[in-house]
């Protein structure tokens, strides 16, 4: 069993991706596989997906609905957006959490800690 949490970031803003990547470096168990598109999410089958809600070509919630049949049921999705108006829709789409941009590093830390606890308490779910 590995303690690595395979992670993908989907965002249309390069600065947002860069900031999140930098902040996630504080967690050695987080392995960022890529910052990419929907087909690659299916290919990588990550444990954790950071998904921007407002993107030019597709809404993050719609994107999740599109790929849901092709990814593992236990993939944890963190929607992150500058807009809180999507929070309820994100939760209805089975979001693990919702991070408002610009987020505070302690908010990110709480989310990562929850994911690590869940992985420790439920390793079968992550490592099927």
Write a short abstract of this structure.
This protein is an alpha/beta fold and 128 residues long.
Q: Can you walk through the features of this model?
A:
The chain has 128 residues and is of the alpha/beta class. Helix content is 41%, strand content 21%. The chain has 6 helices and 5 strands. The chain has helices at residues 14-24, 38-44, 60-67, 87-92, 105-121, 123-126, and strands at 5-10, 30-35, 48-52, 76-81, 97-100. The protein has a 5-stranded parallel sheet, with helices on both faces. The longest helix is centred in the last third of the chain and has 17 residues, at 105-121. The N and C termini lie close together (10 Å).
Gross morphology: globular
- Helices and strands: which structural class? alpha/beta
List the helices and strands in order: EHEHEHEHEHH
Beta content comes to 15-25%
* Main sheet summary: 5 strands, parallel
pLDDT < 50 stretches:
none
Global mean pLDDT? 89
Task: Work out the number of β strands.
Answer: 5
């Amino acid at each position: 069993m590995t303690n690595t949490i395979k992670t993908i970031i989907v965002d249309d803003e390069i600065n947002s991706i860069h900031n999140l990547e930098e902040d996630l470096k504080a967690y050695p168990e987080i392995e960022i596989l890529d910052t990419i598109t929907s087909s690659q999410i299916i290919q990588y089958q990550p444990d954790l997906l950071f998904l921007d809600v407002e993107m030019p070509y597709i809404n993050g919630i719609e994107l999740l609905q599109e790929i849901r049949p092709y990814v593992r049921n236990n993939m944890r999705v963190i929607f992150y957006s500058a807009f809180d108006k999507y929070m309820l829709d994100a939760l209805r789409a089975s979001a693990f959490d919702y991070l408002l941009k610009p987020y505070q590093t302690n908010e990110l830390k709480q989310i990562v800690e929850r994911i690590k606890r869940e992985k420790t308490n439920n390793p079968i779910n992550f490592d099927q």
